Amino acid sequence: MTTADLHRMTGAYALHALPDDERESFERHLAGCEPCAQETAELAATAARLGLALSAPPRPEMREQVLRRITTVRQQPPGPPDAPRPGRTALRARRLSRWALAACLAAAAALGGTAVWQYERAEDAREQARRAEQGAEEIAAVLAAPDATTRAAALGDGATGAVVVSRDRDRAVFVASGMARPPGGKVYQLWFDDGGAMRSAGLMDPGRADQAVLMEGAVDGASALGITVEPEGGSRRPTSAPVALMELPA
Amino acid sequence: MKEAVHIGRNPSWEPDLQELVGRVALGDEEAFAAVYDRVVSPVLGVVRSVLRDRAQSEEVAQEVLVEVWRTSPAYRPDRGTAINWILTLAHRRAVDRVRSVQAAAARDHKAAALARTPEYDEVVEQVEARIEREQVRRCLRTLTEIQHQAVTLAYYRGLTYRQVAEALTLPLGTVKTRLRDGLIRLRDCLGVTA
Fold first, then answer.
1. Do B94 and B6 lie in a common domain?
2. Where is the RNA polymerase sigma factor 70 region 4 type domain (chain B) (predicted)?
3. Which of B7, B14, B91, B161 is surrounded by the fewest CB atoms within 10 Å?
4. Domain span at residue B186?
5. What is the per-residue pLDDT across B88-147, written as a single tens digit (0 to 9) for each?
6. Is residue A34 part of a domain?
7. Spatial contact of B126 and B5, defined as CB atoms under 8 Å apart
8. B130 shares a domain with B93
């Protein structure tokens, strides 16, 4: 698509009339096109005026339902760069869904559950993730970081892993699903790969197939995450070839 | 549409909405109740305009209002008014829902997405015949017919520009251009700034 084509998309974008793939190309374009961003903001505000002309009376019971619901929903921390803005909600939605998915995995892991969580359950999951244990709080902070990026990979034998990195917080969370039990007396140990040198990032719980682990230590310059099978209690250096190696998201 | 969505007599974007949202951001549940009272009708109006189904609309409207509560700490007044933020969110969520329904329908071969497209006349009737906001009506009238059809199908029915092109049998490029110049004309007529 040419730049001129992208310039013409401001109207369709402001009306939420772009299919997802085109919306993403346009958002990439927007980031570097100040006049487009200005025009998009104005057209989004114009679209909202069209909405303001509409009104539908709610059922009276809805008020109480919503007011009750918010008492169980924690507010997000103030001031992330993805602050709501007309024309920016799409970006926000993508971040939210990534966060919701990660939160679901984390909650399932923290509770030792293996439930397949629906996106709709995300609010509940977030609440449970928060309450579950203190570790989950720290995990949630990384997952919720505005700059958090995720990389997921199949780990073999049906297991999947995702690593979420917040460069601002300099922390990473590893979320595993469907991990086979390590052999008796062994544990999975996580490592940061600092340009070939492996630095321990803590142990996984051998009893859980699904779990979210706050990796110990700062991410710093690490470029990858490794998992090895080690004797109980872990090792200072890897004593076996990694069962998985994942590059960290940039 | 024959029922449900009508034009509000006093849309609520009073100046104090912004201040209320600021209090909501601090966890003030009373302020949230006041925000609810001011915005629920337009939120439901926007969602129902796109989704049409009453039960689904209510579900999505509730999600939008809870999202307002949850994300209010990140709302930035310098980036737009509170009502614009809330209605943009409402429209986005309604559109997300209608598209996921369409995607499911397409997968199931139950119906092509366009089978769900109403006659655009219905939309126009819904917006124009009962519009309270004289200014919006007046400005919509300044659009060319194609601009008008394209903008109303996209906003009030939540169609993608591709669906709009199909519904109006117009080339894709034309629809993109009309959505943009139509909105620009509305912006200038309504005196919108951002």
1. yes
2. 133-186
3. B14
4. 117-194
5. 999 999 999 988 877 665 544 334 444 444 444 444 444 443 544 678 888 999 999 999
6. yes
7. yes
8. no
